[in-house]
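Table S4 entry, Potassium transporter.
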Amino acid sequence: VNVTPTYQVELLGQDNWVRTLRLGFQCVGILYADLGTSPLYVFSNTFKYGVGHKDDVLGVLSLIIYSFLLFAMVKIIFIALYANDDGDGGTFALYSLISRYARVALIPNQQAEDDLVSSHRHLSATRRRAQWMKNLLETSKPAKLTLFFLTIFATALAISDCMLTPPISVLSAVNGLRLRAPHLTTDQIVWITVGILILFFAVQHLGTDKIGYTFAPLVVVWLLLIAGIGLYNLIKYDIGTLRAFNPKYIFDYFRRNKKKGWVSLGEILLCFTGTEALFADLGYFSIKSIQLSFSFGLLPSVLLTYIGQAAYLRTHMDMTISNAFFNSIPSTLFWPTFVLALLASVIGSQAMVSCAFATMSHLQTLSCFPRVKILHTSRRYSGQLYIPEVNFFLCVASCIVTISFRTTGFIAKAHEICVALVMVITTLLMTIVMLLVWKVNIWWIAAFFVVFMSTETVYLSAVLYKFTQGPYFPLAMSAVLMVIMIVWHYVHVKRYKYELQHTVSPDEVKHLLERHDLKRVPGLGLFYTELVQGIPPIFPHLIEKIPTVHSVIVFISVKHLPIPHVDVQERFLFRQVEPKESMVFRCVARYGYRDTLEMAGDFVATLVEYLQYYVRDLSLYCTAEPLRTSYPSIRIDSFRWEKKPSGRSGRSGHGHGIHAEEMLTPIQSFSELTMHQVGMSNRLPQFQTAKMNLEEMLRIEEDQKVIQREVDNGVVYILGETEVVAKPHSNLLKKIAVNYIFDFLRKNSRKGEKMLSIPRGQLLKVGITYEI
């Protein structure tokens, strides 16, 4: 038994804590600036028409305190973060987690072998409620479609919200200049904001890791400063403001203000905007780091700030509320606070931008969005991404929003609808996860659903009441994004089903490969297809036009599983196509939605290495079966495989592989087996069987040599250039979606060869048209 020394365990524990503290420090710079800058505009928007009653300030403060604690701390930090998909959070991760326990995917590419991947499980809890939920999701097409619709709706809202968070945060901070420079016009404020936004998006290519370390110290100073100002205001103006911790003031506030108090909930929910992005950005950090930095850093700082502002407002009810935050700052601290507020507001947009990058990456794996370039900015943390196209789009959209709407009031109302709807959808998906995955008492699940769904729908109703005053804008943007997602996914599913229905039968494949006019040219041909079963119809189309194929052909399907990562040892799934002499294989390359696609050269090297393993193991199985029948006493797993000396250490032993340039030499090991385990050859009545097995071993080596030789002769990547059109008798809506919208998206999206990093000199495209 191997026992880890005590000092190694201590070092491991220290390393975990060091990593947690490091990530916690980055959390401050990436996640909390948005929540930390919400005091800039919450009171200003809530009391934009003035304070009607002195205790209304206490009522609103009490709502802010308990809303922040309930939705940000309880729901997200201490419940939702545990509903993660192997460390990844957000709406898509919830959908992915549900997909692992119930077959809800709309694309029929599931394989039984996927369940053998160590981190991929199609399981459910043993409770009857989990089985009921699983059967409902798998057998009801409306349930599948509803779940899919909710997921893409939430992601569309999250992306729309990313267009609003930077303008409202930066514009709120820049507006503070008017207290010291009242001559500034609205146009000048707007253009200063636009310049800051452009600069912010220009540095996104540096990556979350660098931005987090750069911004985190500034946000720490900001949080300490506003906490100190809040404490100062509380002591100086009204220590009695602490009475707001009594929820009685909430009821008094609603009793006095009635409908007006209900409508103000839309502005109050701005105090916890950014929490859903915090959940989505979990893949950048860890649960412990977020909980630690939130509980001991953000929470006390933000609450002190709101309490201090409320204390100031209770003694200055006649003042202008539009700049409540900056008015409450001691005059000697105005400029340092303004500079930090400006920096923190810019940084506050980082959480939403990071969320947009993660969301778009997830949409790619779900085949719900045209292809874009995804760059991983950190070698240490795989979830940290940068997407140039998305960054440019957000930059342009944020500037347009700022120039068009010019004030925080309209942007705030538009912001509210995104927050409220994503809250509700997250609660619905989390309830499904609790029923399907978690082994939690049903009464706890019911309590969670009732408490959060009831309160969140009240907030949502308040926002929808002001629909024409701003909420329509993000819904319109979300509708456009959803049309793109739905059309792209619809055509993708239809194309996959078309290819599945028109797969080439084994007899037809055999006939094609045995055609007398078919020429086999040297080299390895990698034929990319989306099908995970069978040969696609584009293959006979290619042979019909150009009756020439490579000596070794591998049909490759790149498939994303609903898990964050797939280990490279479990990545490739091979099948050999008959006849065996044709050297044609099918391969499914399985990735998680956070795995990076390798460069073409690295991919081929790994593919060929594991193809060699497959050829060995397949032949070993064929050889072992007759040997097992003749010699039942022999353990098949006792075979010992050797390889030719290569001058460097390799791997040996049954179940292990060899490097691509190394060839197995099984003759010696088989001789040892026959001599020592079976006995001398002249004592074997079944010696002919052993001889046949020896010949099979020699064939393994020959097949591996053939594969390696063809790789050395050159690799050609074959991609289908598929044009999809609607059938002539299709309805008008389908023709518009397929022939115009999808065609436009396909022509303007990133090409498949660029996504796969295929060298242009080794690329062969085959054109074909599908009618769906």
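The longest helix spans residues 141-174.
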